């Protein structure tokens, strides 16, 4: 195998992407399909799933299959794996992508229900999926891989976004611990830390932060970009490309790492 060939994932990988019917998750799912993988996604939005399945029908490609599921509900996670076994018959790659932005507020103003929801979706769900995925990954002929979506907020402090940042730091802790635990059986575990990713989600975050600080949206956006060394947002495709590399033969020696794809965000 040449070095160039090593940059492409093995054909036929069975991949599960959580939160995979829209946003970064959907871009990752489609990237794996383009690389010859079989992909199942779960998502909390029936509307997003319906749109995805309709697009897959029109494309007449190797279809992405899907399960409606709230990832913070352990019973729903069980249903995802029942569907996964039916559709793919096993698992080679878990992309633990699902997450929410959480509230924007000072620590003394945070609503406790919003704190709990952020922990449930961004952290507890990672545990629910890894717990069920690992027995399947042990049987993968490719060795098995887990990629957790953390955030640049998982290596930097983030004022007024404490719940989100706390969960993303915790994801890195899970990643490094599981890499040690699962490495002897050939399962690699890494985290990707996207920065300010172009799309509707960051627009909502910037809008909420601008409202919190009482400044115009454009001024808030300019402040965000000035904190990035490259002075531009990251694209979802750049995040997906990193996921593909980590699951390729070229990435087979990488485990226990938190890889920032952020243009070098200097501070949040």
UniProtKB/TrEMBL annotation:
Alphabetized NCBIfam families for the sequence: PRK12826.1-2 (NF009466)
Enzyme class: oxidoreductase
Annotated keywords: Oxidoreductase
GO molecular function: oxidoreductase activity
InterPro entries on file: NAD(P)-bd_dom_sf, Sc_DH/Rdtase_CS, SDR_fam
Oxidoreductase among keywords: yes
UniProt-listed PROSITE patterns: ADH_SHORT
Record's protein name: Oxidoreductase
EC annotation from Swiss-Prot or TrEMBL: 1.-.-.-
Taxonomy of the source species: Bacteria, Pseudomonadati, Pseudomonadota, Betaproteobacteria, Burkholderiales
Pfam families named among the record's database cross-references: adh_short_C2
Top-level taxonomic group: Bacteria
UniProt organism field: Paraburkholderia nemoris
Gene3D superfamilies, sorted: NAD(P)-binding Rossmann-like Domain
Similarity comment: family membership: Belongs to the short-chain dehydrogenases/reductases (SDR) family.
